[in-house]
Structures are given as structure tokens and as C-alpha cells.
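Translate structure to sequence.
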């Protein structure tokens, strides 16, 4: 059986149409994907711009926070640098804090300020010295009792005394109008 030329032409036309249809389907699918990718790329670029702006804002906030932290640290050096004295100074009598000691002497502790510690060498021995300002309210007799308790380690609520790990030099005592007293003192701690 011999196939006629007409059948070959029809068969060729069908194959050609099928091939063109396949190519068109592939082309339109790729065009759709390309359009979706283009939209995704535009969306990603928009998000990148927003994220870049946010990143810059966060970096500015970080710089401001670090600057603020540096400023805060500069304003409060005594709270950081004199922390080693905080343990001894606030826990004077077997865990008794300064407020309790003040109450035991009959005075009220109003405020406490501290300077950063500095080294002082006497001969071959190096001491660490911190200056403190203490403001208390109470009568003179009780205020003197409090000053003595800080300097000697006497607890007026206990029947014994103990050895302090530091030495106190009371620089000045100023009685203010209204019953408060400002006590300036230096604390010498042996550095070892």
C-alpha cells in the first residue's frame, strides 16, 4: 500500500501544527513564568529598599544607644569603679548594711555618694582610696555614734567589735540646718 501525496501533506501539516502548538504552549508558559519572576524581582527590590532603610535606621539607633551608654557610664563612674568597696561598705557588721547600722545608731541615712577609687602609695605599700559623702539625719550624739561605728566597726546592737578590712579617715563633718549632717570620709583599702 502506497500512501498518497495528499496524505503525506496532511500528515506533515498535522505534525507541523502539533509542533507549533507545543512551541506556543512552552513559549506562553515561559512568558508567564518570566512575568511572575519579574514581579517577584520588583517585589524583592522594593523589600530590599525598605530593609536597607530600616537597617540604616537601626544602625543609627545602635550608634545613639552606644553613645548614650558611654555618656551614662561617664556620669556614673563611682557606681562602677567603687563596686569593690560596696560589698565591704554596705555590709559592715556581719552582713548588716549601712542603713541598718545607721538605724542602730539612731540616725537616718539620707544619701551616699562615692568617688572613683585611686591608688595611693606609702613606702612600698599601695592603698586604694575612695572618697565618700554620707548625709544622715539625727541628733548630734547619735551622729557621732554613727561616725564612730563606721570608723571602728563597733556595732551598738552587738556586744563585740570586729576588725574591718579597710581603714576610714573622716575628713569633715558638717552640721546643716534642719538636723542633717554631711560626713566626708576616705576609705583606704590595702591592695596587697
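Result:
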Amino acid at each position: 500500500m502506497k500512501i498518497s501525496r495528499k496524505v503525506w501533506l496532511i500528515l506533515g501539516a498535522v505534525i507541523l501544527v502539533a509542533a507549533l502548538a507545543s512551541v506556543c504552549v512552552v513559549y506562553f508558559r515561559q512568558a508567564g513564568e518570566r512575568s511572575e519572576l519579574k514581579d517577584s524581582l520588583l517585589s524583592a527590590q522594593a523589600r530590599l529598599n525598605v530593609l536597607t532603610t530600616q537597617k540604616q535606621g537601626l544602625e543609627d539607633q545602635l550608634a545613639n544607644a552606644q553613645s548614650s551608654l558611654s555618656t551614662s557610664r561617664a556620669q556614673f563612674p563611682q557606681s562602677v569603679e567603687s563596686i569593690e568597696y560596696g560589698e565591704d561598705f554596705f555590709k559592715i557588721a556581719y552582713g548588716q548594711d549601712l542603713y541598718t547600722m545607721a538605724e542602730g545608731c539612731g540616725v537616718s541615712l539620707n544619701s551616699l555618694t562615692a568617688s572613683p577609687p585611686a591608688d595611693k602609695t606609702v613606702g612600698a605599700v599601695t592603698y586604694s582610696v575612695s572618697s565618700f559623702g554620707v548625709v544622715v539625719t539625727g541628733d548630734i550624739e547619735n551622729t557621732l555614734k554613727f561616725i564612730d561605728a563606721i570608723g571602728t566597726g563597733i556595732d551598738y546592737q552587738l556586744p563585740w567589735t570586729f576588725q574591718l578590712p579597710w581603714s576610714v579617715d573622716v575628713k569633715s563633718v558638717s552640721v546643716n540646718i534642719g538636723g542633717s549632717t554631711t560626713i566626708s570620709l576616705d576609705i583606704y583599702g590595702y591592695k596587697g
